Amino acid sequence: MTSSTEHSAEQLSATTLLRFATAGSVDDGKSTLVGRLLHDSKSVLADQLEAVEHASRSRGQEAPDLALLTDGLRAEREQGITIDVAYRYFATPRRRFILADTPGHVQYTRNMVTGASTAELTVILVDARNGVVEQTRRHAAIAALLRVPHVVLAVNKMDLVGYEESVFATIAEEFTAYASELGVPEITAIPISALSGDNVVDASANMDWYGGPTVLEHLETVPVSHDLTSCHARFPVQYVIRPQTAEHPDYRGYAGQIAAGTFRVGEGVTVLPSGRTSRIAGIDLLGEPVDVAWTPQSVTLLLEDDIDVSRGDIVVPSDDAPATTQDVEATVCHVADTPLTVGARVLLKHTTRTVKAIVKEIPSRLTLDDLSQHPAPGQLVANDIGRVRVRTAEPLALDAYADSRRTGSFLLIDPADGTTLAAGMAGESFATSGAAPAQDDEGWDF
Predict the structure, then answer these.
(1) How confident is the model over 300-350, as pLDDT tens digits?
(2) Cα dihedral: 34, 40, 43, 45 (round 10)
(3) How far is it, in rounded angstroms, from Cα 131 to Cα 318?
(4) d(CA 125, CA 187)
(5) What tens digit of pLDDT does each residue of 358-377 get?
(6) d(Cα 215, Cα 194) in Å, to the nearest integer?
(7) Among 60, 125, 191, 253, which is least packed by CB within 10 angstroms?
(8) Cα–Cα distance between 351 and 332 in angstroms, integer?
């Protein structure tokens, strides 16, 4: 007999969404793994598979090259590599998935930041012949910095090492020790052969010594932890609605997407950075009034008091308001080709607010080999991970990234051309800092 509890659990699992990213060194087989996942889970349309088979035959390959299912750019197919972040959407009877297939080359490591920034799980591939390499450590560090809750170590190409358990065990032990030191909360190691399909969707007959889940089984059953309704409630204002029509002469609403938490009518709130307080008089959702709204709903809040609220302000519960600051200490992943230097004038974008800022100090850069800090590097170049201290022209209501990935993150932007320079995570991380404060700069002096 099936209980109602079991039935509801099955319904819940069928509707949950898992965002995950793949990462690894070049030629580790990420695209082949993704292609195998799509193919063996019956998530590939017939015309897509036919096109891949045709492209494979034209390249002299007898079997279809499943990597072509994800390497969509012409340059990627010609070189057999991944350059851009390829997003794929697929589903099984148990769960829906959004996959970000990220590049393996060092110069495209910054693309992993994009793919993993919203992921609940990251699959890091390792070539069983090469073991843990610098790029493996770099990807583990980024996953740890971005607070990705679950990391899967997929030891690929086990067929090329004779499916030896000792090879897998050595790699899994080294990676787990490294990732645990970074603070990765959960690590699952799976031996696979993406080319042959071993332990990707179906269990491998060649590795009877392994008793864990396949990659797809783990993806279908891993707890999804993106429930932000229990986090600190935060509502960045995106737009002020004032129709000023005969039907709505006095309507003033503040529209946006709830970044975290829950808001209720009658709740006391504070508008930051001004610090003015009021109460929620009403909440409009899809044109209809509701009593309660939660993340990630897009709503319009109406306040009891006529106070000055504009785009970029954040509405928070009065009894759970973050402190505002103009001095931001954070870990950043530098993603631009131009270096980030001390004294650089930048724009800092946090939720819907963008303010002028100066890079006051770069206390350290992370050395991936031993996780040591290279003190006072003076600048960060593309793909570097380091600590920064930034002074903003206006106060910001930043949460610690460890508490909220949505309201603890920000971008540093080049004010000249709008190029994204760095992705930042406010507060402490596994990186440490302890350099002396820098002197004020001329120009943008806050």
Answers:
(1) 999 999 999 999 999 999 999 999 999 999 999 898 889 999 999 999 999
(2) 100
(3) 51
(4) 13
(5) 999 999 998 876 677 889 89
(6) 10
(7) 60
(8) 16
Q: In angstroms, what CA-CA distances link 132 with 113, 173, 199, 281, 434?
A: 20, 10, 20, 56, 30
Produce one character per residue of 219-242: b if its CB has 16 or more CB atoms within 10 Å, e if not. Answer: bbebebeeebeebbbbbbbeebee
Other beta carbons within 10 Å of 443 = 8
In angstroms, the Cα distances linking 279 to 105, 268, 276, 307, 316 are 51, 4, 11, 11, 11
* Cβ count near 115 (within 10 Å): 25
Phi/psi for 56 (5° steps) reads -65, -45
Asked if pLDDT for residue 388 goes beyond 90, the answer is: yes
Average pLDDT taken over every residue of the chain: 83
**Cα(110)–Cα(349) distance, integer angstroms:** 18
What's the rounded Cα separation, in Å, for the pair 185 and 129?
27
Look at residues 400, 364, 370 and name the one whose alpha carbon lies nearest to residue 384: 364
pLDDT band at 431 (very low <50, low <70, confident <90, very high): very low
The DSSP line for 1-24 is: ---HHHHHHHHHHHH-EEEEEEEE
Q: Which residues share a beta bridge with 349?
A: 354, 411
Q: Are 123 and 155 in contact (CB under 8 A)?
A: no
Counting runs of H as helices and runs of E as strands, what totals does the chain give?
8, 25
Cβ-contact 77, 86 below 8 angstroms: no
User: Which amino acid type is present at position 386?
Assistant: G
